[in-house]
Amino acid sequence: MMLLIYFLNYELIRARFGSESVVDINEWRLDHLAKACKRRNNGGHTNLQPAFYLHSKNHSLLYCLVFKAGTSSWFYNFNSWAGFTDYEIMHVDNLFLARKFYPKENRVTLMNSMEHSFSFIVVRHPFERLISAFEDRLVSMKNAYYSRMSRAIYHRYHPNEGGNISFRDFVQFIIDDVEYNNTTLALDIHWCPINNLCTPCLARYDFIVKMETYARDVQTLVKAARLEGVVRLAHVNHVRKDSVNGLAAKYFSQLTQRQFDMLYSIYEIDFELFGYSADMYFQIPKALV
């Protein structure tokens, strides 16, 4: 825990300075990831997962998709480079669209691409990512598939009632899903641990972007990858009225201590690999029953 606190303090202190310090922070993140992977036996994986990488050969750029961590912005860039119109990007599933132009590479080809392209990943605090997935996928009712899922989850835990899914329902659903499958690999891509999506311990990254310092990180990435004027820097995201602290208290106070502990164990690997702390969430008073 002290290691994570020191890491976060280091980032906060260094972020006060100029662009060179962003490069320093990135080196720190990469080094931290390498050391955590060694402690964690490569995150428990033996093979690179190629399903969520996009490789733009024209730009020598390789990106691993972490859903609910800036993917909208990067899908826009990759699909625009592929020649798709804004209308197509707005109305067609972005991964489906991208795969028409950027086919999935096999493991051997992907490893070779990593050696000869600028590779990066965008990560996010695991619990903030979870809240975003809950609000955007299960609460908003914007997507037919997730609307059905939301109602099904609610009726699983409230069979004789009428109402809307709660964050507590969502968390229990994740816990039950992991227990039933005896793995986190089967979780939906919007809340599956980053460790499973991108197998970061087996990948070679040049840059780790964090959502918490997104604008600064992307500016540095663009310069390092020599893509000035090519990458759209706009951060596509929904504006929230509530602060991170407010959302944390609103949702995590619904959980019992047992639910919270089990949830943390599911995402603990992501916390460790990318130097995030859950201290604030541990301190939120939990529901008694």
From TrEMBL:
It holds the Pfam family Sulfotransfer_2. Its main location: Golgi. Keywords: Carbohydrate metabolism, Glycoprotein, Golgi apparatus, Membrane, Signal-anchor, Transferase, Transmembrane, Transmembrane helix. It comes from the Eukaryota. InterPro entries: Carb_sulfotrans_8-10 (IPR018011), Sulfotransferase (IPR005331). It is found in: Golgi apparatus membrane. The keyword Transmembrane helix applies. GO terms for cellular component: Golgi membrane. Its EC number is 2.8.2.-. One of its GO terms (biological process) is carbohydrate biosynthetic process. One of its GO terms (molecular function) is sulfotransferase activity. The keyword Cytoplasm does not apply. It is a single-pass type II membrane protein. Belongs to the sulfotransferase 2 family. This is Carbohydrate sulfotransferase. It comes from Anopheles farauti.
